[in-house]
Design a protein that fits this description.
Layout: H1 3-17, H2 24-33, E1 45-46, H3 51-65, H4 72-85, E2 92-93, H5 94-104
Antiparallel strand pairs: 1-2
Helix pairs in contact: 1-2, 2-5, 4-5
């Protein structure tokens, strides 16, 4: 098992730990889409208590990657994902956050390219 596969196992554990049924294929594609950032301790997680970090998720992922329009629904979706993964959980993996946001907005087809 390579390094990326080991990380995906961690991501599956985090998602299943909060009752999410995981689409392994989509999670793998989301993880690959994150590139080398998954190997960086700081970049691999989302600091949900940092408003600038949440703004980055919104701008770089929801608006740029998923092609969504800036709307209060985006902030609500991010808030919902943070709640799902647990506000007190300090290790919300970026791949898990992006996976849940992708599912929330039904944008799985973005990863079919």
């Amino acid at each position: 098992m390579n390094k990326r596969e080991k990380l995906i196992v961690k991501y599956v554990e985090q998602l299943e730990g909060v009752g999410i049924k995981v689409d392994h294929d989509l999670l793998t594609k989301v993880t690959i889409g994150l590139g080398p950032s998954i190997y960086n301790v700081d970049a691999s997680t989302v600091a949900s208590s940092d408003p600038s970090e949440l703004q980055t998720v919104k701008n770089n992922y929801l608006i740029k990657k998923l092609g969504l329009k800036d709307d209060p629904k985006l902030d609500k979706a991010i808030d919902k994902v943070v709640d799902t993964l647990g506000r007190s959980n300090k290790n919300k993996y970026r791949a898990c956050v992006y996976y849940l946001l992708c599912k929330e907005f039904g944008k799985e087809s973005i990863y079919d390219k």
